[in-house]
Amino acid sequence: MKNREKLEVSRRQVLVHTAVGAAGLLVSRSGARASEKFGSRGKALLRPTPQCLETEDNILGPFYRAGAPFRTILADPDEGQPLHIDGSVSGPDCQPLAGALLDLWQANDDGIYDLKSPDFLWRGRMNAGKDGIYSFDTILPGRYPSGSSYRPRHIHFKVSSPGSLSLTTQLYFAGDPYLKTDPYVRPSLIIELEGDETQWSGTFNIVLGVA
Ligand code: FE
Fold this sequence. Notes:
CATH architecture of the largest domain: Sandwich
Radius of gyration: 18 Å
CATH class of the largest domain: Mainly Beta
CATH topology of the largest domain: Protocatechuate 3,4-Dioxygenase, subunit A
Largest sheet: 5 strands, mixed
Number of helices: 1
Bound molecules: fe (iii) ion
CATH superfamily of the largest domain: Aromatic compound dioxygenase
Mean pLDDT: 84
Distance between the termini: 42 Å
Shape: globular
Low-confidence stretches: 1-42
Structural class: alpha/beta
Number of strands: 12
């Protein structure tokens, strides 16, 4: 099954921005309220301590394979709708986790995982940079049947760094109609994509807890 329809990106359907973005929103809102009520002195008193919320975990699912090659291109752009994802890996203090290890896997455009081939298609491991930043290029994953419905488009992540709690989670995309019916989706794991079916891009900032 081909899923090449344009992914609708509606601001109304964006449930949650990234954790860092959400924190920034809270800061600006509380700052605005303080300013209205107390003037600039109140604003200063309510200056928040920087905090990054730990990324929510999500099920591993049945399709993980250990040992994927290190690479940042998980699919040829001709295989579907090209997708670029970048983001940061940090601790709850918002400090970057240099060299954090990310292990990613996803279905192809037809909703199929590579379960056997030595090529580990649509899978890859990569390290974040010294600044905790990572990025990769792939295609928008296809949906696949689950129970009486379909799983929404998603990418699986395992993320680890020495001294941090290892995280298994999934990344979802705003506007996917199957987000509403999937029992595993968590609103905090949904990001908004920019672009169109010729090139999507999005940001997923990841925060690991302290081990
Ligand atoms: Fe999956």
